[in-house]
Amino acid sequence: MSRLCAIAGSIVVLAILMLPGATTAGAVQPINFTRGALSGAGFTTANPSSLAIGPDGRVYVADTNGSIRALTLDPNTKAVTAVQQITTDADIQEILGIAFDPADPSSPPPIYISNTISVFGDAGQAPAGAFSG
C-alpha cells in the first residue's frame, strides 16, 4: 500500500492508493482509492501548496504563506484531532514543497522544504539570510 496526496483548489484532499500484488509487465492495473476532505479540530486552509505524510504518521500541510502545520488524524474516522503549528509566515515565505527523509529516525522529523521569495524590495536584493529557491 502506498499513499497518494493531492491538493484540489483550497481543499486539502488525502487519497489512499491501493496497488494490487505482483503483476505481469505491461498489464494495466485498476487504481482503487478513497477520497475525502481533511477536516476537524478547527483546521482550515486557504492557500495549500503541498502536503506530505511524515514518518511520525501525521499529515504535514504547507501553505503558500509560509505556514506548515502537522495534523494528527483519528485512525478510524480520518478526522483531524490535533493541529500543531510548525512554522508561520514570519519563519518562511512562499513554501512550494515539503518532504521527509524516510530513513531518518529523528523525532521530531526534519522537514525539507522548497520555497521562494517573490518580492526582494526596491534594491532587487534578497533579504540577508534569505536563501530563495
Strand line-up of the largest beta sheet: 4-5-6-7
**How many domains, as an integer?**
1
Oligomer: single chain
Q: Total strand count, please?
A: 9
Descriptive overview:
This protein is mainly β. The chain has one domain. Helix content is 0%, strand content 41%. The protein is built from no helices and nine strands. The chain has a four-stranded antiparallel sheet, with no helix packed on it. Strands 1-2-3 form a three-stranded antiparallel sheet, with no helix packed on it. The protein has a two-stranded antiparallel ribbon with strand order 8-9. Strand 5 and strand 6 form a beta hairpin. The two termini are 32 Å apart. The N terminus is likely disordered.
Please outline the helices and strands.
Blueprint: E1 2-8, E2 11-18, E3 32-37, E4 48-53, E5 59-63, E6 68-73, E7 80-87, E8 95-99, E9 112-115
Antiparallel strand pairs: 1-2, 2-3, 4-5, 5-6, 6-7, 8-9
Summarize the structure.
The protein is built from no helices and nine strands.
